[in-house]
Amino acid sequence: MKFVVILAQVLHVIIGIGALAGGYACITDPINPLGAPLSMLEGSPFSSYMIPGFVLGIFFGLGNLLQIFFVSKRVWYRSIGEGLLGEGMIIWIIVQVLIINTITPLHVLFFLFGAIQGIIGLVWVGKETLVNLRHQRIIDE
Hints:
The chain is mainly α. The chain contains four helices and no strands. Helix 1 packs antiparallel against helix 2, helix 1 (2-28) crosses helix 4 (105-140) and helix 3 (78-100) runs antiparallel to helix 4 (105-140).
């Protein structure tokens, strides 16, 4: 189980730092961040990269870095955070691919990272549920 905790923390560091950097780039240059032309947003609800940059930086950047703390402290809601961040990443990548109409290797990689986070969250929820059920059965007996 220690491997899973380390894997989760490594993913949070990679995603968190990458999302903070990407979010910062989108906020400081909302017209052409990291060379992404504004034309990629045609047909989307966004007129610049500013709002996606805030979402990227806050939810995925700060969220993943905060989740490192929750995972290391093994707080009960770490599984919920893991699942939300993983499923959020999957949705983010799918929407991004649909908006820009392009798939890159980074999309595939971060989709997989999100899937791994989601699976880890499900495993932790299942484990916590079993422990709670076992504990409740002992109390009831």
